[in-house]
Amino acid sequence: MATRRPTKPAKSTTKKEDDVRSILGDDDDSDGIVLADDFEFAGSTEIDSDGSARQAPAKFLGMSAGERAFLSVVLFFNILILGAALLLITGRLQF
Length: 95
Known about the structure:
By secondary structure, this protein is mainly α. The protein has a domain at 62-95. Helices cover 38% and strands 6% of the residues. It contains two helices and two strands. It has helices at 15-24, 65-90, and strands spanning 45-47, 53-55. A two-stranded antiparallel sheet has the order 1-2. A hairpin with a 5-residue loop joins strand 1 and strand 2. The longest helix is centred in the C-terminal third of the chain and has 26 residues, at 65-90.
């Protein structure tokens, strides 16, 4: 199978693209590169006022991802069973 070759060379950035970048860019170096330092991530290292680094907590309620998934499944089935029981009690669902 033959590889397809481009017939035209890649275009450089147009004036419209440069205008959009200049509008959206709020820093001095508008090279279009977004660094990871521009965002805060869960579990990232934070710097205290005294200059020491500390690890930010990455867990919700101290649970790992597997524990949170298990809890969400348990809560889902709990609500499902309670909802079905309520429908049976009120007579809106006949079994």
